[in-house]
Design brief:
Chain lengths: ~575, ~220, ~400
Amino acid sequence: MPETDHPRMGRPTKGPAFFPTLTLLFLLGPVLAGLLGTLLPSFGLLRPSGAAAFSLEPWTALAEWPGLARSLWLSLKTGVIATLIAFVLAVLLVAGWQGTRWFKVAHGLLSPLLSLPHTAAALGLAFLIAPSGWVARLMSPWATGWNRPPDILVLNDPGGWSLIFGLVLKELPFLLLMLIATLPQLQVRDRTNVATALGYGAVLGWCLTVLPGAYRQTRLPVYAVLAYAISNVDMALILGPTAPPVLSIQILNAMNDPDLGLRAPAAAAALLQLVLVLVALIIWKAGEVAGATCVQALLWRGARGNSLAFRALKPIGLSTVTATAVLLFSGLLAHFLWSVTGRWRFPDVLPQSFKTRTWDRAGEDLLFTGFTTVSLAFLVAVVALALVIGCLETEHRRGRAMGTGGVLILYIPLILPQISFLPGLQILLLLAGVNHGIWPVAVAHLVFVLPYVFLTLAGPFRAWDRRLATVASALGHSQQSILWRVKLPMMLAPILIAIAIGMAVSVGQYLPTLLASGGRVETLTTEAIALASGGNRREIGVWAITLTFAAWIPFLFAYALPALMFRNRKGMTNG
Amino acid sequence: MDKAASQSGLTLSDLSVYRRSGEKLLQVNAHVLPGRTLTIMGPSGIGKSTLLAAITGTLSPDFRCSGSVRLNDRELMQVPPEKRRLGILFQDHLLFPHFSVAQNLAFGLPPRTKHRRARVEQALEDIDLKGFASRDPASLSGGQRARVALMRMLLSEPEALLLDEAFSRLDQDLRARMRRLVFAKAEQAQLPVIMVTHDQEDAEAAAGDILRFPPPLAT
Amino acid sequence: MRLTAILAAGVFATAALAETPSPAPNPDNWDAVLQDANGETVYWNAWGGSPQTNDFIAWVGQRVKDEHGVTLKHVKLSDTADAVSRVIAEKSAGKTNGGAVDMIWINGANFAAMKDADLLFGPFAEALPNWKFVDADGKTVTTDFTVPTEGYESPWAMAQVVFIYDSETLPNPPKSAAALLDWAQANPGRFTFPQPPDFLGGTFLKQMLIELADDPSVLQSPAGANYADVTAPLWQWLDALTPSLWRQGRAFPQTGPRQLQLIDDGEIDLAISFSPGEASAAIANDLLPDTARTFVLDGGTLGNASFVAIPFNASAKAGAMVVADFLLSPEAQLRAQTPDILGYGTVLNMDALAASDRDAFAALDLGPATLSPAELGQALPEPHASWMTKIEQDWSTRYGAGN
């Protein structure tokens, strides 16, 4: 090895990196403390009664939970299948339609739906597809002959298919936008042109030439979706099977049970949930290998993907994605209609009477709570943004991308089921003396907002042309000057999107808000979840609409502001 | 070393670049006099651009370098990139897309320059782009962009010039004119120039020493 | 494991040193309580799923602010367990003072668990000035699921099981376990109940057990070796009923309100409720058709009270007591019983009230779907809490595990 002397960008960067350390602290501190707070009770320590002795009894109690095996299987099945379907549909749409006008329409339709809260989506869907729901009302009684709703098991089916349906619907926009975000760096047009010239059909050509690269970059978001799909509570509560429910609901029920003795097995179950997520990731990894092998096999067989079956994939992609958008929007419309409904019974297509009472009653609360929610979300998103930019800039200056370990750490909060570590986090915050109020909530939100902000910004930051920095430093500009005058202004669009996504994530947090604030900080989501427990569709409608709107406003800014500021800068529109 | 130290111009002494694995890519010993051009030629992937990055101090962490770079009696290896006073031009011209043409030029002016606006106006006139001050760089033609990039670099008052395939994106006719302009400016300011290219005509137009590298053993 | 224990002790015990409890207000010195309460902010953790309840709590807040300078904040919960969890977490962290929860809407098993774990402040209830109006002899306000309250919680509303039905589609509802089974088998898919361990679902099972058990009096003692024998008739009955339930018993509504929604959607004809006034309030709020009515079973139905309790580490104990006392005032009780407001039964003894208050209660129109006290009859006492726990677990194994 020769003497290696390598001044890189500017000052030699040695010693502790301030931002990555701080970020790790914010991410891992709460998560590890939280996990400890779950691990200990699951082995008989840290009991509510104060008694503490190591024991495996929580685990043996867990083993006797009714339907545990089936719950595990249902969680795994619904999560994996939903993620797979959503991913395949996203690929089909992009592969078959990228660059067309239809693609733009579909993209435009789905983008705002990213901010749709899971609970609102699930409730909207539930009202659409229930036997007494909107679809049935549209068809009854003239087509179906139903004057009363039929006794058909659609929602909450024991096989979990309505949950899978809901998860696909909600995750499809996210995966699609993540996939689209990778495309600018993949010279898609060149690649697909070559494939077309060689006689490949659109879908197969795209899958062979673009997908491998695109998948490499969307892999982690896909894992996050998978982990969410397996461990989510909000959608499973509304659409999922009930006898037995998925594991996450079993845990929730046990945690909420008045019998405090169930908390220890619930903690054990929360760890089991974590194991389940890891199992699913392993299964998914195996699926990746199998998928790659299939693609290889197609390649060697010389398939061109022009057969009828392959050509049919194209319309399937567009139509399912359009149907997704239509369903989600119909759900929102239904929420709105209910929010102004007096009476509305089956089989009427529209409400029999309209009332503004629900809005009137919520009015002042909405404004006040909405303001708290959005301010908190903005605060958290901006702090996360500062940390992420600090990390990415450190990475840029050190010239070393965060290793796999770093990326995994970042993903831990997204992959860990919230129920596995939030109760422990609550105790940590109490010990730290931050009892209630806005700050502990902000810290708890930060754990979940940081990863999303990082994910959104890492791509554009890493894809940024380093030669611009070379040019600027050759022009005599310091690192600091380059960051503030060149890089950040050029990144305005992705930065605003990252803030919007971060805010949407913060707005949607329920458990972290509740646990960290001791219930003393009300946000739109805590209000909405409390009201949703009362099942009144009018109330749910008001809050679902407001919540969606609150999460959507930052996106509006994120799209409008760069367009306005750089309206005379063509070079900024595709960057 | 001592001999080089006393000379003005750009001196590369045993400047070597390696992959992180330790595999050596290039080693260069050269002295470029003010107003003269050293052309480095060789096939793609051999490490020519990496060598320039070593000189500007912006080497990517996948590479290492050793040896010395001296510019007019200053040893550059431990100097941060922004203090090295080296101008560089790339084939893509790399105007900052969020700035107007005038802002791009102003960005090159050293901090304590007086009469900045007037200097920028004058610079635009020098490259026949009077009236282009508030234009969007994306709306310029390739030749216009190349001239703005060149002028921006010159405004930063560099002491040496590095050209990384700077002309390869331009068409035949434009390419010749741009070359003339760059070399004329370099000579006028008495700047030593190192040009990386794989184009024979570029090398001939530079009319200086040529360093040719054999194809790499691997790849 | 020793290592984790040490780690845990280190991590979780440090704060315990810092807190020294401030002297708790003495409920017997009410003037001092009022003085302490003035200017305090009370965080009342209560279920927030009903806008009517939320409005009522907001009204209480307005009144105690005007009257006593107490600021009342409603922490809207989706489940009472959230508040219990918070207090437990605070206790684990050694936080014996300045807790986030000042008052909880509570009863039954949650109360038993908190009292058992020494998580409650008290006794205070019987020292409240308005306790003199409470019908402590006639109503089950001093025991909660057979557990003596001993002043650790203060009652504020009476509840009794009723069944809600739509008189238009079901003119003659079944009023016994046997009739219910016959009717369900003749009309499959038209009945269901909230899935145990939901509170209301568990209550339905208990209600049926009381009627089906050979000797319901054993239910007042903890469940023991007799459990299997006593509950056998219930499982026999459920085995016969379940296939005729809504969705053939393969899915259940998760909560009481969702079950009520199913009536309004026309999916079911009959639903259990724990509030005699719920149907009238729901009609007034457009949540049920105005043909909805209620009935009680021929053998009578379960009754209990809703309480408020104060955690041991509450920040505003005096303020919480003032709110608890206000809830017992004739003014608050009358408002709570008004059908389009809450429709909750009063805990007060009419004979103890001033004549004008008594008249006001008598003049109250309880609404179209609310039974008179005579029709409701004497409420049956709640079985010991252990029965509910065991039945719910058993039910989940038999019907809730997908076998």
